[in-house]
Amino acid sequence: GAIPVALPAVLTIVQSVGAMDLAKKGALVTRLDSVEDAASIDIICFDKTGTITQNKLSVVDSIPLSGNKKEDVLRIASLTSHKEGMDLIDLAVIEYAQKSGVSFNEYKQVSYTPFDPSTKRTEAIIETGGKRFKAVKGAAQMIMSLCHDVDKGTIDEVNKTISGFSKKGYRTIAVAKSDGDDLNNLRLIGLLPLADPPRPDSKSMIDQARKLGIKPMMLTGDSIDIAKEISNQIGIGNNIIRIADIKDLSADQQLKIVSECDGFAEIYPEDKYKIVKLLQSGGHIIGMTGDGVNDAPALKQAEMGIAVSNSTDVAKAAASVVLTEPGVGVIIDAVTISRQTYQRMLTWVINKVAKVIEFVVLLTIGFFWLHNLLLSLLGVSLLVVANDFVTMTLATDNVKQTSNPNKWNVKNNILASLIPALFYILDDALVILIAINYFHVQWNELTTLVMLTLIFNSQLRVLIIRERRHFWSSLPGKGLIISSTITIVGFVLVGVFGILVPPLNLFIVLTSLGFSVLFTLIIDFPKYYLFKKFGL
């Protein structure tokens, strides 16, 4: 009777109900445990592009350099783009060039090298008029380092222009082409600022996360000025740092700085995994969003990896939650539903611990007091069946999520279970004493009465433990009310008509039920104090 035989079934059912609720909100759960893990998340790392921002790049302007024209910058940038590759920068460049009426029909793209995070550029070999040249676009600093015509004045001018765009939240890429017969003799053509505005719901999501006691952090490969601007726009904060600035520090120093910052800029995809691991080493429970192949390790490492709707298949396979619709507001729904799931599981655990304490202590006292076992084997079986089926309905009980992350505290859970258990042991002892001295029941009848008392106590205990405040503060779920009512009425009939067990007088059965109700009402007040004291 003390073994939690229903534990696997109850936890699976509770988590499955949570997963179904999330699916209705537009989030598919691929790892069932993540429904519980999300309740404990205290930091969520948001990938900027595609999560915080719309991931809809658009070219804002064309900035020519070295005597070139705007059309020249757009033309070379378009020639280093490949529409079929569905690269967002390529598509944005081609679209802007077409809107600007730039023609490049006389040019032929001989080869195309897609963007590589390690080189931070896209290349293409272009043929026109029987001659070939190389066209390159990518990160401005990287492109300038490849060009031979860039002097200090040009560098200062480019950096000033980039800084101005960065403060507006724009990314800036540089465009270059080879000069003469040497394909590696690159000459800087100009700059293209790219806009990727925040999602309309990003700011409200960040605000809600903070209200739930979760710290938001932003991760991006963009420059620190862009990161600060976007971070300020959505309300995360401007304490943004570079991962390179802390790489030479000790692990403790790194953890301290990372725990206090609002996000990271100029990171590589592999840095996301390192950041998640570092935060976890400090005892934090991490949520992580991402969409690309390179995000997969971080998504898999986080307690709740969230793949946004436009993610690659690899990212979705690594994540524990996959969003099916654009927008990230469902992340807050995931946390809220997970905390509700946690509260249902916490109710089951506290109820089970209290029931085991009552069961074991009562049988021990009864053995030394009356020199016999107070429950028959059949009685134990009926007790287990009656209680476990009812507690399974906790999966759909009405619960309220907490305003802070939930973490299992075994000590507090046991202490919170102890007081209700002791009160019910006193109830059991009084019922036995009255039955022997006033009702003069036989031993077989006494075992029936003890079984009924334990069942009544268990049904009523669930109704007060499920609510962290006083039991009347919220209405139990329909399934819990129906199952508890059927169980109580059913076992009253079992006791009176002697179905499978020795029969009892109706008055004796109702007396047992009355004592259970009375002690339940009394227990609710110390329970309320204990739950508040232990932060349950």
Give a structural overview.
The mean pLDDT is 87. The longest helix is centred in the middle third of the chain and has 41 residues, at 330-370. This protein has helices spanning 7-25, 34-37, 48-52, 70-79, 88-99, 140-146, 152-166, 202-211, 224-234, 251-260, 269-281, 296-301, 313-318, 330-370, 377-392, 410-437, 443-465, 478-497, 506-533; strands at 27-29, 43-47, 58-59, 63-64, 108-116, 121-128, 131-139, 171-178, 186-195, 215-219, 240-242, 263-265, 286-290, 304-307, 321-323. α1 packs antiparallel against α14 and α17 runs antiparallel to α18 (478-497). β5 (108-116) and β6 (121-128) form a beta hairpin. The strands form 2 sheets. The chain has an 8-stranded mixed beta sheet, with helices on both faces. Strands 3, 4, 5, 6, 7, 8 and 9 form a 7-stranded antiparallel beta sheet that branches. The protein is α/β, with parallel strands linked by helices. The chain is elongated.
Query: Based on helices, strands and strand pairing, what is the structural class?
Result: alpha/beta
Quote the beta fraction: 5-15%
The biggest beta sheet reads: 8 strands, mixed
Strand order of the largest sheet: 1-15-14-13-2-10-12-11
- List how many beta strands DSSP finds: 15
Overall shape: it is elongated
Portion of residues within helices: 40-55%
C-alpha-based Rg, rounded: 33 Å
- Give the overall average pLDDT: 87
Number of helices: 19
Report the end-to-end length measured between terminal Cα atoms.
26 Å
Quaternary structure state of the chains depicted: single chain
Low-confidence stretches: none
